[in-house]
Design goal:
40% of the residues lie in helices and 17% in strands. It has 450 residues and is of the alpha/beta class. It has three domains: 5-57, Electron transport complex subunit B, putative Fe-S cluster (3-methyladenine DNA Glycosylase II, Chain A, domain 3, Orthogonal Bundle), CATH 1.10.15.40; 63-314, Dihydropteroate synthase-like (TIM Barrel), CATH 3.20.20; 327-449, Rossmann fold (3-Layer(aba) Sandwich), CATH 3.40.50.11600. The longest helix is centred in the middle third of the chain and has 17 residues, at 239-255.
Protein backbone atom coordinates (compact mmCIF):
# COMPACT_ATOMS: atom_id res chain seq x y z
CA UNK A 1 0.00 0.00 0.00
CA UNK A 2 1.45 3.37 -1.00
CA UNK A 3 1.97 6.18 1.49
CA UNK A 4 -0.45 9.10 1.67
CA UNK A 5 0.64 12.68 1.13
CA UNK A 6 0.30 13.41 4.85
CA UNK A 7 2.48 10.40 5.73
CA UNK A 8 5.15 11.56 3.28
CA UNK A 9 4.93 15.12 4.64
CA UNK A 10 5.75 13.77 8.10
CA UNK A 11 9.08 12.47 6.76
CA UNK A 12 10.07 15.75 5.07
CA UNK A 13 12.13 18.52 6.73
CA UNK A 14 9.24 21.00 6.17
CA UNK A 15 11.49 23.86 5.08
CA UNK A 16 9.10 25.08 2.34
CA UNK A 17 12.26 26.07 0.44
CA UNK A 18 10.68 25.63 -3.01
CA UNK A 19 13.90 24.02 -4.31
CA UNK A 20 11.89 20.95 -5.33
CA UNK A 21 9.84 23.09 -7.71
CA UNK A 22 6.71 23.22 -5.56
CA UNK A 23 5.51 26.11 -3.35
CA UNK A 24 5.23 24.04 -0.15
CA UNK A 25 6.35 20.73 1.29
CA UNK A 26 2.69 19.69 1.47
CA UNK A 27 2.19 20.29 -2.26
CA UNK A 28 5.36 18.31 -2.98
CA UNK A 29 4.29 15.44 -0.70
CA UNK A 30 0.90 15.22 -2.42
CA UNK A 31 2.56 15.02 -5.83
CA UNK A 32 4.94 12.30 -4.62
CA UNK A 33 2.01 10.32 -3.23
CA UNK A 34 0.22 10.63 -6.57
CA UNK A 35 3.30 9.41 -8.43
CA UNK A 36 3.70 12.77 -10.18
CA UNK A 37 6.98 13.78 -8.51
CA UNK A 38 10.13 12.00 -7.37
CA UNK A 39 11.09 12.14 -3.69
CA UNK A 40 14.70 12.64 -4.83
CA UNK A 41 13.73 16.18 -5.91
CA UNK A 42 13.92 17.25 -2.27
CA UNK A 43 17.57 18.17 -1.57
CA UNK A 44 17.21 17.85 2.22
CA UNK A 45 15.56 14.46 2.66
CA UNK A 46 17.77 11.62 3.95
CA UNK A 47 18.72 8.55 1.89
CA UNK A 48 16.90 6.38 4.42
CA UNK A 49 13.66 8.29 3.87
CA UNK A 50 14.13 8.21 0.10
CA UNK A 51 14.52 4.44 0.18
CA UNK A 52 11.53 4.00 2.48
CA UNK A 53 9.24 6.15 0.34
CA UNK A 54 10.47 4.59 -2.91
CA UNK A 55 9.81 1.11 -1.52
CA UNK A 56 6.32 2.03 -0.30
CA UNK A 57 5.45 3.82 -3.54
CA UNK A 58 6.77 1.13 -5.88
CA UNK A 59 4.19 -0.66 -8.05
CA UNK A 60 3.32 -4.22 -6.94
CA UNK A 61 4.95 -5.53 -10.13
CA UNK A 62 8.46 -4.19 -10.52
CA UNK A 63 9.44 -2.31 -13.66
CA UNK A 64 12.35 -4.01 -15.40
CA UNK A 65 14.27 -2.09 -18.07
CA UNK A 66 16.27 -3.68 -20.87
CA UNK A 67 18.40 -2.26 -23.69
CA UNK A 68 20.16 1.11 -23.65
CA UNK A 69 20.11 4.65 -25.06
CA UNK A 70 17.17 5.28 -27.35
CA UNK A 71 16.28 1.60 -27.41
CA UNK A 72 15.04 0.82 -23.92
CA UNK A 73 12.21 -1.63 -23.30
CA UNK A 74 10.39 -1.32 -19.96
CA UNK A 75 8.20 -4.23 -18.86
CA UNK A 76 6.17 -4.69 -15.69
CA UNK A 77 5.29 -1.71 -13.51
CA UNK A 78 1.64 -2.79 -13.47
CA UNK A 79 -0.72 -1.72 -10.69
CA UNK A 80 -4.16 -3.02 -11.70
CA UNK A 81 -5.85 -6.20 -12.92
CA UNK A 82 -8.16 -4.47 -15.39
CA UNK A 83 -7.49 -1.53 -17.67
CA UNK A 84 -10.69 0.31 -16.74
CA UNK A 85 -9.45 0.56 -13.12
CA UNK A 86 -6.61 2.85 -14.20
CA UNK A 87 -4.48 1.82 -17.19
CA UNK A 88 -1.90 -0.77 -18.14
CA UNK A 89 1.58 0.73 -17.96
CA UNK A 90 4.00 -1.12 -20.26
CA UNK A 91 3.09 -3.16 -23.35
CA UNK A 92 4.66 -6.63 -23.50
CA UNK A 93 7.84 -6.81 -25.54
CA UNK A 94 7.36 -8.92 -28.66
CA UNK A 95 10.28 -10.81 -30.14
CA UNK A 96 11.52 -13.42 -32.58
CA UNK A 97 13.58 -16.52 -31.79
CA UNK A 98 17.06 -17.08 -33.23
CA UNK A 99 19.15 -20.13 -32.27
CA UNK A 100 22.73 -21.30 -32.72
CA UNK A 101 21.29 -24.33 -34.52
CA UNK A 102 20.12 -22.21 -37.46
CA UNK A 103 22.26 -21.70 -40.55
CA UNK A 104 23.54 -18.23 -41.40
CA UNK A 105 20.88 -17.67 -44.06
CA UNK A 106 18.03 -18.38 -41.65
CA UNK A 107 19.56 -16.13 -38.99
CA UNK A 108 19.96 -13.27 -41.49
CA UNK A 109 16.38 -13.78 -42.69
CA UNK A 110 15.02 -13.47 -39.16
CA UNK A 111 17.08 -10.38 -38.41
CA UNK A 112 15.75 -8.88 -41.64
CA UNK A 113 12.16 -9.68 -40.60
CA UNK A 114 12.78 -8.00 -37.26
CA UNK A 115 13.96 -4.85 -39.04
CA UNK A 116 11.35 -4.99 -41.81
CA UNK A 117 8.10 -5.28 -39.91
CA UNK A 118 7.44 -1.68 -38.90
CA UNK A 119 4.08 0.04 -39.24
CA UNK A 120 2.47 3.30 -38.20
CA UNK A 121 -1.19 3.39 -37.18
CA UNK A 122 -3.05 6.49 -35.95
CA UNK A 123 0.30 8.13 -35.34
CA UNK A 124 1.66 5.24 -33.24
CA UNK A 125 4.64 3.13 -34.31
CA UNK A 126 4.03 -0.61 -34.29
CA UNK A 127 7.23 -2.61 -34.13
CA UNK A 128 8.79 -5.62 -32.39
CA UNK A 129 11.50 -4.93 -29.82
CA UNK A 130 13.10 -8.28 -28.91
CA UNK A 131 15.34 -10.94 -30.42
CA UNK A 132 15.74 -14.05 -28.26
CA UNK A 133 19.06 -15.85 -28.84
CA UNK A 134 18.94 -19.50 -27.77
CA UNK A 135 21.97 -21.70 -27.20
CA UNK A 136 21.60 -25.14 -28.82
CA UNK A 137 25.24 -26.29 -28.71
CA UNK A 138 26.71 -25.26 -25.38
CA UNK A 139 29.52 -23.52 -27.27
CA UNK A 140 30.39 -20.06 -25.81
CA UNK A 141 32.28 -18.98 -28.95
CA UNK A 142 29.41 -19.87 -31.29
CA UNK A 143 26.88 -18.18 -29.02
CA UNK A 144 28.91 -14.98 -28.67
CA UNK A 145 29.45 -14.84 -32.45
CA UNK A 146 25.68 -15.01 -33.00
CA UNK A 147 25.04 -12.30 -30.40
CA UNK A 148 27.72 -10.13 -32.02
CA UNK A 149 26.11 -10.54 -35.45
CA UNK A 150 22.72 -9.47 -34.10
CA UNK A 151 24.18 -6.51 -32.23
CA UNK A 152 25.91 -5.33 -35.42
CA UNK A 153 22.95 -5.82 -37.77
CA UNK A 154 20.11 -4.90 -35.42
CA UNK A 155 21.59 -2.69 -32.67
CA UNK A 156 18.09 -1.52 -31.69
CA UNK A 157 17.03 -5.03 -30.66
CA UNK A 158 16.64 -5.86 -26.98
CA UNK A 159 18.18 -9.31 -26.47
CA UNK A 160 17.13 -12.32 -24.43
CA UNK A 161 20.15 -14.60 -23.95
CA UNK A 162 18.97 -18.19 -23.43
CA UNK A 163 21.18 -20.95 -22.02
CA UNK A 164 21.47 -23.05 -18.89
CA UNK A 165 25.26 -22.65 -18.90
CA UNK A 166 26.85 -19.70 -17.16
CA UNK A 167 29.91 -19.54 -19.42
CA UNK A 168 27.72 -19.42 -22.54
CA UNK A 169 25.59 -16.59 -21.16
CA UNK A 170 28.69 -14.75 -19.96
CA UNK A 171 30.17 -14.89 -23.49
CA UNK A 172 26.95 -13.51 -24.97
CA UNK A 173 26.62 -10.83 -22.29
CA UNK A 174 30.16 -9.63 -23.06
CA UNK A 175 29.10 -8.83 -26.64
CA UNK A 176 26.20 -6.72 -25.34
CA UNK A 177 28.39 -4.27 -23.44
CA UNK A 178 26.14 -1.75 -21.68
CA UNK A 179 23.12 -2.77 -23.75
CA UNK A 180 21.23 -4.66 -21.04
CA UNK A 181 20.04 -8.09 -22.12
CA UNK A 182 17.81 -10.49 -20.19
CA UNK A 183 19.70 -13.55 -18.94
CA UNK A 184 17.52 -16.66 -19.25
CA UNK A 185 17.44 -18.55 -17.08
CA UNK A 186 17.95 -19.49 -13.46
CA UNK A 187 16.78 -22.95 -12.35
CA UNK A 188 16.97 -24.76 -9.03
CA UNK A 189 20.20 -26.37 -10.24
CA UNK A 190 22.07 -23.26 -11.34
CA UNK A 191 20.48 -20.22 -9.68
CA UNK A 192 23.48 -19.39 -7.48
CA UNK A 193 25.92 -19.16 -10.39
CA UNK A 194 23.31 -17.36 -12.52
CA UNK A 195 22.84 -14.87 -9.68
CA UNK A 196 26.59 -14.26 -9.68
CA UNK A 197 26.54 -13.58 -13.43
CA UNK A 198 23.59 -11.20 -13.06
CA UNK A 199 25.47 -9.27 -10.39
CA UNK A 200 28.65 -9.16 -12.49
CA UNK A 201 26.88 -7.87 -15.60
CA UNK A 202 24.11 -5.82 -13.98
CA UNK A 203 21.64 -7.55 -16.31
CA UNK A 204 18.15 -8.67 -15.25
CA UNK A 205 17.76 -12.40 -14.70
CA UNK A 206 14.89 -14.64 -15.81
CA UNK A 207 13.61 -17.33 -13.45
CA UNK A 208 12.91 -20.64 -15.20
CA UNK A 209 10.67 -22.58 -12.85
CA UNK A 210 8.93 -25.92 -13.26
CA UNK A 211 5.71 -24.75 -11.59
CA UNK A 212 4.24 -21.77 -9.78
CA UNK A 213 5.56 -23.06 -6.47
CA UNK A 214 9.08 -23.60 -7.77
CA UNK A 215 9.06 -20.20 -9.49
CA UNK A 216 8.07 -18.53 -6.21
CA UNK A 217 10.82 -20.36 -4.35
CA UNK A 218 13.43 -19.42 -6.96
CA UNK A 219 12.28 -15.81 -6.89
CA UNK A 220 12.62 -15.72 -3.10
CA UNK A 221 16.11 -17.23 -3.20
CA UNK A 222 17.30 -14.78 -5.85
CA UNK A 223 15.91 -11.83 -3.88
CA UNK A 224 17.89 -13.09 -0.88
CA UNK A 225 20.95 -13.01 -3.16
CA UNK A 226 20.29 -9.30 -3.58
CA UNK A 227 18.77 -9.36 -7.06
CA UNK A 228 15.95 -6.92 -7.70
CA UNK A 229 15.37 -7.17 -11.47
CA UNK A 230 13.78 -10.54 -12.21
CA UNK A 231 11.52 -11.88 -14.96
CA UNK A 232 9.42 -14.99 -14.36
CA UNK A 233 8.72 -18.13 -16.40
CA UNK A 234 6.61 -20.68 -14.53
CA UNK A 235 7.24 -23.47 -17.05
CA UNK A 236 3.57 -24.33 -17.75
CA UNK A 237 2.85 -27.59 -19.56
CA UNK A 238 -0.15 -26.48 -21.58
CA UNK A 239 -2.10 -23.48 -22.82
CA UNK A 240 -4.60 -23.55 -19.96
CA UNK A 241 -1.84 -23.70 -17.35
CA UNK A 242 0.01 -20.91 -19.17
CA UNK A 243 -3.06 -18.67 -19.01
CA UNK A 244 -3.86 -19.55 -15.40
CA UNK A 245 -0.29 -18.93 -14.25
CA UNK A 246 -0.29 -15.41 -15.71
CA UNK A 247 -3.54 -14.55 -13.94
CA UNK A 248 -2.53 -16.13 -10.63
CA UNK A 249 0.79 -14.27 -10.57
CA UNK A 250 -0.83 -10.92 -11.39
CA UNK A 251 -3.57 -11.36 -8.78
CA UNK A 252 -1.13 -12.51 -6.10
CA UNK A 253 1.18 -9.57 -6.74
CA UNK A 254 -1.52 -6.90 -6.85
CA UNK A 255 -4.16 -8.17 -4.42
CA UNK A 256 -1.92 -9.96 -1.91
CA UNK A 257 1.34 -8.06 -2.44
CA UNK A 258 3.09 -11.42 -2.77
CA UNK A 259 6.62 -10.23 -3.56
CA UNK A 260 7.99 -13.41 -5.23
CA UNK A 261 5.43 -12.86 -8.01
CA UNK A 262 5.96 -9.09 -8.13
CA UNK A 263 7.89 -9.22 -11.41
CA UNK A 264 6.96 -9.27 -15.13
CA UNK A 265 6.76 -12.60 -16.94
CA UNK A 266 8.27 -14.01 -20.11
CA UNK A 267 6.31 -16.44 -22.31
CA UNK A 268 6.97 -18.68 -25.31
CA UNK A 269 3.71 -19.42 -27.19
CA UNK A 270 5.46 -21.67 -29.73
CA UNK A 271 5.97 -24.26 -27.01
CA UNK A 272 2.22 -24.90 -27.00
CA UNK A 273 1.36 -24.74 -30.71
CA UNK A 274 1.98 -26.96 -33.72
CA UNK A 275 1.43 -24.20 -36.27
CA UNK A 276 2.09 -20.48 -36.56
CA UNK A 277 -1.57 -19.42 -36.60
CA UNK A 278 -2.29 -21.17 -33.29
CA UNK A 279 0.89 -19.70 -31.84
CA UNK A 280 -0.26 -16.17 -32.64
CA UNK A 281 -3.72 -16.90 -31.22
CA UNK A 282 -2.09 -17.90 -27.95
CA UNK A 283 0.07 -14.77 -28.10
CA UNK A 284 -3.05 -12.63 -28.54
CA UNK A 285 -4.39 -14.00 -25.25
CA UNK A 286 -1.08 -13.31 -23.51
CA UNK A 287 -1.10 -9.67 -24.64
CA UNK A 288 -4.24 -9.18 -22.55
CA UNK A 289 -3.45 -11.67 -19.77
CA UNK A 290 -0.69 -10.59 -18.63
CA UNK A 291 2.65 -11.39 -20.26
CA UNK A 292 5.57 -9.00 -19.85
CA UNK A 293 7.38 -10.44 -22.86
CA UNK A 294 6.25 -12.72 -25.71
CA UNK A 295 8.82 -14.62 -27.77
CA UNK A 296 7.52 -15.97 -31.11
CA UNK A 297 9.10 -18.74 -33.18
CA UNK A 298 8.90 -16.63 -36.35
CA UNK A 299 7.40 -13.44 -37.76
CA UNK A 300 4.72 -13.34 -40.45
CA UNK A 301 3.39 -9.95 -41.43
CA UNK A 302 -0.29 -10.86 -41.73
CA UNK A 303 -0.21 -12.36 -38.21
CA UNK A 304 2.17 -9.92 -36.54
CA UNK A 305 0.34 -6.75 -37.59
CA UNK A 306 -3.01 -7.58 -35.90
CA UNK A 307 -1.10 -8.69 -32.80
CA UNK A 308 0.63 -5.31 -32.72
CA UNK A 309 -2.68 -3.48 -33.18
CA UNK A 310 -4.21 -5.47 -30.31
CA UNK A 311 -1.27 -4.55 -28.10
CA UNK A 312 -1.58 -0.88 -29.05
CA UNK A 313 -5.30 -0.82 -28.31
CA UNK A 314 -5.04 -2.54 -24.94
CA UNK A 315 -2.09 -0.47 -23.75
CA UNK A 316 -3.41 2.89 -24.89
CA UNK A 317 -4.43 4.97 -21.88
CA UNK A 318 -8.26 5.10 -22.09
CA UNK A 319 -8.24 8.47 -20.32
CA UNK A 320 -6.03 10.10 -22.97
CA UNK A 321 -7.29 10.37 -26.54
CA UNK A 322 -4.96 9.67 -29.44
CA UNK A 323 -3.91 12.90 -31.11
CA UNK A 324 -1.83 14.10 -34.02
CA UNK A 325 0.44 17.13 -33.98
CA UNK A 326 -0.97 20.54 -34.82
CA UNK A 327 0.19 21.91 -38.16
CA UNK A 328 -0.20 21.95 -41.94
CA UNK A 329 -0.45 18.56 -43.67
CA UNK A 330 0.05 18.54 -47.47
CA UNK A 331 -1.92 15.73 -49.14
CA UNK A 332 -1.56 14.65 -52.77
CA UNK A 333 1.11 17.28 -53.47
CA UNK A 334 -0.80 20.58 -53.13
CA UNK A 335 0.32 23.88 -54.65
CA UNK A 336 -0.63 27.55 -54.26
CA UNK A 337 -4.00 26.99 -55.98
CA UNK A 338 -5.04 23.97 -53.88
CA UNK A 339 -7.99 24.01 -51.46
CA UNK A 340 -7.44 24.46 -47.73
CA UNK A 341 -9.43 22.37 -45.23
CA UNK A 342 -9.34 22.47 -41.45
CA UNK A 343 -10.27 19.93 -38.77
CA UNK A 344 -9.37 18.89 -35.20
CA UNK A 345 -6.40 16.82 -33.99
CA UNK A 346 -8.35 13.82 -32.70
CA UNK A 347 -6.40 10.99 -34.38
CA UNK A 348 -9.46 9.13 -35.65
CA UNK A 349 -10.87 12.30 -37.21
CA UNK A 350 -7.53 13.10 -38.83
CA UNK A 351 -7.07 9.67 -40.38
CA UNK A 352 -10.64 9.51 -41.67
CA UNK A 353 -10.47 13.00 -43.19
CA UNK A 354 -6.95 12.57 -44.62
CA UNK A 355 -7.94 9.17 -46.02
CA UNK A 356 -10.91 10.65 -47.87
CA UNK A 357 -8.78 13.49 -49.23
CA UNK A 358 -6.12 11.05 -50.41
CA UNK A 359 -8.83 8.97 -52.08
CA UNK A 360 -10.12 12.03 -53.91
CA UNK A 361 -6.67 12.55 -55.49
CA UNK A 362 -7.25 16.30 -55.20
CA UNK A 363 -4.09 18.11 -53.98
CA UNK A 364 -5.17 19.67 -50.69
CA UNK A 365 -3.75 21.50 -47.68
CA UNK A 366 -5.17 20.03 -44.45
CA UNK A 367 -4.88 22.23 -41.36
CA UNK A 368 -4.92 20.37 -38.06
CA UNK A 369 -5.87 22.48 -35.04
CA UNK A 370 -4.92 21.31 -31.55
CA UNK A 371 -8.20 20.59 -29.76
CA UNK A 372 -6.62 18.40 -27.04
CA UNK A 373 -7.87 15.26 -28.74
CA UNK A 374 -11.53 16.27 -28.84
CA UNK A 375 -13.69 15.62 -31.90
CA UNK A 376 -15.14 18.49 -33.96
CA UNK A 377 -18.45 19.04 -32.15
CA UNK A 378 -17.07 18.24 -28.70
CA UNK A 379 -14.18 20.65 -29.24
CA UNK A 380 -16.56 23.35 -30.46
CA UNK A 381 -18.80 22.87 -27.40
CA UNK A 382 -15.74 23.06 -25.14
CA UNK A 383 -14.59 26.32 -26.73
CA UNK A 384 -11.49 24.74 -28.27
CA UNK A 385 -12.62 24.86 -31.91
CA UNK A 386 -14.51 28.12 -32.20
CA UNK A 387 -14.11 31.11 -34.53
CA UNK A 388 -11.54 32.85 -32.32
CA UNK A 389 -9.27 29.81 -31.86
CA UNK A 390 -9.51 28.79 -35.52
CA UNK A 391 -8.72 32.34 -36.67
CA UNK A 392 -5.71 32.59 -34.38
CA UNK A 393 -4.39 29.27 -35.65
CA UNK A 394 -4.90 30.15 -39.33
CA UNK A 395 -3.01 33.41 -38.86
CA UNK A 396 0.00 31.83 -37.17
CA UNK A 397 0.09 28.58 -39.18
CA UNK A 398 1.70 30.11 -42.24
CA UNK A 399 -0.89 28.76 -44.67
CA UNK A 400 -1.36 32.27 -46.17
CA UNK A 401 2.18 32.03 -47.52
CA UNK A 402 1.47 28.73 -49.26
CA UNK A 403 -1.66 29.65 -51.24
CA UNK A 404 -2.67 32.57 -53.47
CA UNK A 405 -6.38 32.33 -52.71
CA UNK A 406 -8.06 33.03 -49.36
CA UNK A 407 -10.66 30.30 -49.11
CA UNK A 408 -10.98 28.11 -46.02
CA UNK A 409 -13.18 24.99 -45.94
CA UNK A 410 -14.60 24.24 -42.47
CA UNK A 411 -16.48 21.09 -41.37
CA UNK A 412 -20.20 21.19 -42.09
CA UNK A 413 -20.97 20.74 -38.41
CA UNK A 414 -19.46 24.19 -37.78
CA UNK A 415 -21.74 26.02 -40.23
CA UNK A 416 -23.09 28.19 -37.40
CA UNK A 417 -19.72 29.90 -36.86
CA UNK A 418 -19.27 30.95 -40.51
CA UNK A 419 -20.25 34.59 -39.95
CA UNK A 420 -18.22 34.94 -36.79
CA UNK A 421 -15.20 33.34 -38.44
CA UNK A 422 -15.44 35.74 -41.41
CA UNK A 423 -15.31 38.62 -38.92
CA UNK A 424 -12.21 37.12 -37.32
CA UNK A 425 -10.62 36.46 -40.75
CA UNK A 426 -11.86 39.35 -42.93
CA UNK A 427 -9.44 38.48 -45.76
CA UNK A 428 -10.71 34.91 -46.02
CA UNK A 429 -13.81 33.44 -47.62
CA UNK A 430 -15.24 30.75 -45.34
CA UNK A 431 -16.70 27.79 -47.21
CA UNK A 432 -18.89 25.25 -45.42
CA UNK A 433 -17.78 21.75 -46.27
CA UNK A 434 -19.70 18.46 -45.97
CA UNK A 435 -20.88 17.28 -42.57
CA UNK A 436 -19.33 13.85 -43.07
CA UNK A 437 -15.81 13.10 -44.31
CA UNK A 438 -17.22 10.71 -46.91
CA UNK A 439 -18.56 13.75 -48.77
CA UNK A 440 -15.14 15.34 -49.19
CA UNK A 441 -14.02 13.67 -52.47
CA UNK A 442 -16.94 14.95 -54.52
CA UNK A 443 -16.89 18.30 -52.70
CA UNK A 444 -13.20 18.88 -53.38
CA UNK A 445 -13.51 17.96 -57.03
CA UNK A 446 -16.33 20.48 -57.46
CA UNK A 447 -14.38 23.10 -55.51
CA UNK A 448 -11.35 22.63 -57.73
CA UNK A 449 -13.43 23.06 -60.86
CA UNK A 450 -15.08 26.23 -59.55
Amino acid sequence: MGLTGIQILGMLPKKNCKECGFPTCLAFAMKVAAGQADIAACPYVSEEVKEKIAEASAPPIRTVKLGSGDHVLAIGGETVLFRHEKRFEHPPGIGILVTTGMDEGEVSSRIEKFKKYRWERVGVKLEPEVIAVEDKDGDPAKFSALVKKIREEAPEAVLVLMSDKKDVLAAGAKECGEHKALLYGATMDNYKEMAELAKETGFPLAVKGDSLAETARLSEELMKEGLKDLVLDTGPRGVRELYEDQVIMRRAAIKKRFKPFGFPSITFPYRYANNLVLEYMIASVLVAKYAGMIVLSDFRGDLLYPLMVERMNIFTDPQRPLVVEEGIYPINGPDEESPVCITCNFALTYFIVSGEIEGSRVPTWLLIKDTEGLSVLTAWAAGKFGADTIAEFVKKSGIAEKVKHRKLIIPGYLASIKGELEEELPDWEIIIGPREASGLPSFLKEWKAA
